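Entry for the shared binder. Reason: the reviewer on the internal report wants the predicted structure included alongside the sequence.
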Amino acid sequence: MRLVVDLNKCQGYAQCAFLAPDVFALHGEEALLYDPRAAEEQRERLARAVAACPVQAITADGLDGAGGATAEAGQGESGGR
């Protein structure tokens, strides 16, 4: 599964870091760190993180289980506050 976070959209709400802490982390108050190649066992947490992003900054390829579909972040992002 491949993750992309649009750091220009990210406002640092940290919903993704709360919902998938093994994948997303805030560094300081403004910088989001994340693993762009998340492990398969993180699928459910990633789906929640994507859905929780208030600014829809997270894109996850293969999140729906079809192997290549894209789920645009509904909410879950963090990184810039």
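Summary line for the report: The longest strand covers residues 2-5.
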